[in-house]
Amino acid sequence: EPSYDYIVAGAGAAGIVVAQRFAETGASVLLLERGGPSTFATGGTSTVSWNDTATIYDIPAYGHQLNFIPEADGVWCSDTPGLAGCILGGGSVVNGLQWVKPATWDFEDFPAGWKWDNVATAAARLYERNPGTSLPSADGKYYDQAAYQILTKQLAPYGWREVDSLVEPDAKDKTYYHPADNVQDGLRSGPVRTYLPLAEAKKNFKLQLNTKVIRAVRTNATITGVEVEDASGSRQIVRLAQGGKVILSAGAMSTPRLLFNSGIGPAEQIRVVQQSKTTNVTLPDELQWINLPVGKNIQDHPLFRLVWNVTDPDLSKLTSLSTAQFLNPTAEQVEQFAKGSGPLVQGSIRLNLWQKITNQDGSVRYIESMNFVRANGTVLMGATLTHGADSRGELGIYPNGTTYFVKQPLLQTAGDREAVENFFRQILDYARGPESVLEYSRGGRDATVEDLWAGGWDSARHFTGGAAVVDVDARVYGTENLFVVDASVIPSLPTGNSMAITMVVAERAAERILALGKAKR
Ligand SMILES: Cc1cc2nc3c(=O)[nH]c(=O)nc-3n(C[C@H](O)[C@H](O)[C@H](O)COP(=O)(O)OP(=O)(O)OC[C@H]3O[C@@H](n4cnc5c(N)ncnc54)[C@H](O)[C@@H]3O)c2cc1C
Known about the structure:
Low-confidence stretches: none
Number of domains: 2
Largest sheet: 8 strands, mixed
Radius of gyration: 23 Å
Shape: globular
Number of strands: 22
CATH architecture of the largest domain: 3-Layer(bba) Sandwich
Structural class: alpha+beta
CATH class of the largest domain: Alpha Beta
Bound molecules: flavin-adenine dinucleotide
Distance between the termini: 14 Å
């Protein structure tokens, strides 16, 4: 029976990065993923009718359209309260391709050893391999730009500045830009494209798909392997080499389950696992349970979908591509795609804007808005409240193994609501200004802050926290050789979308874990 120096549970944004970094040292690495292949290069079969070497996960423009594509139905994890991708690449192949480099202050709440100065070289390694681009189309043009034209006109009187986010990741106050997309050579980029092939070229690396990790096998502080379940439901134990390490990288919605199943977390959650009549999880003896705040402090960006009507007669004539047009592209667009150009190689967002909001008590929060056109004559602002937001939720587990929100993570504090209102008030002021080209879709020129609240809010699917129960080496407290490396160790919300920062965390964690030394064989 084989045994491994490193077993990584979950091949998403973080898991692929750490597994590749371990593999390049010559150590034996097993990367376990519960989902199947995704991109064409990994054996994915959901190719589109108009291109037989690209799957729905390869095509940048489909990032925000997957909900409209029946083939994508099975990719969402069925046992988590928030949307997460259960497929090779995890969130990195189902997300909106927004590539937002973290700001330096995004590390201010991390422990010593993880501030920006400590992680900068890890970030540089990541950006070298996975740079992202502010101009995805190989022909050097931007396509489908109505939202960009309309919003830049709306912002023009108010001193906003256009920046290149890849060059100035800290320019996040009254700035806007063409989004940086996670695109390379006209295809979705990310760890499946930029890290996984390097790992797969090594004989000491093994990727096993359709294999669900159930728990870390633990005696007191020592992990000896993991229990896995294959697609037929049959289970086995995969062993670690002596001195080997297990890394949990199942994402913020699932890593807490793996910890509960390993007897780590609040006793009331582990007790649910213990008493379950269906999940058949073997827990360590109760005396060995490790009481840590697993599942606590989950955060997410609340997302407001604000629809504006275009009032300027010239701008309202601009047209944009609809979901149906993206899904049934013209012959010209198909030809452009084959050359790495055209609207199909762009993500869905057309303009990002950022603003720093200071509340009455002096506390600072950030707003990010991702904007595009869904119906001609309108602009859709996807406004999110980001870094500085202090609402926190809690994740628990049901007897059937599904994780759920014991407490919702969004907009729980007065300070978060005040910051959102400050932003709403400002964009309504802009809309009433003499040079405005927009009015809000409910209430028109007389729209109020209440009209904007009335649209409600949703999860931006940027979950962080929930398993920040690790030391500076990303090792779970109370264990010798169990680590968590994914978005669930991020202690506070990032200023932008969460994938790039998760990959920076993975690069930094790989460095720290490797410095702990090799397994003895
Ligand atoms: C719909 C959507 C849109 C998003 N848009 C953006 C965006 O545009 N830009 C951005 O920066 N971020 C975006 N995000 C967030 C971003 O994708 C995540 O922050 C990032 O992927 C988190 O990485 P992770 O490694 O923590 O988890 P994930 O990438 O989710 O990876 C976890 C992996 O573990 C696997 N797994 C889970 N449980 C098990 C188990 N028991 N055994 C084995 N494998 C398991 C999963 O299948 C998955 O492959 C979006 C997320 C979603 C869901």
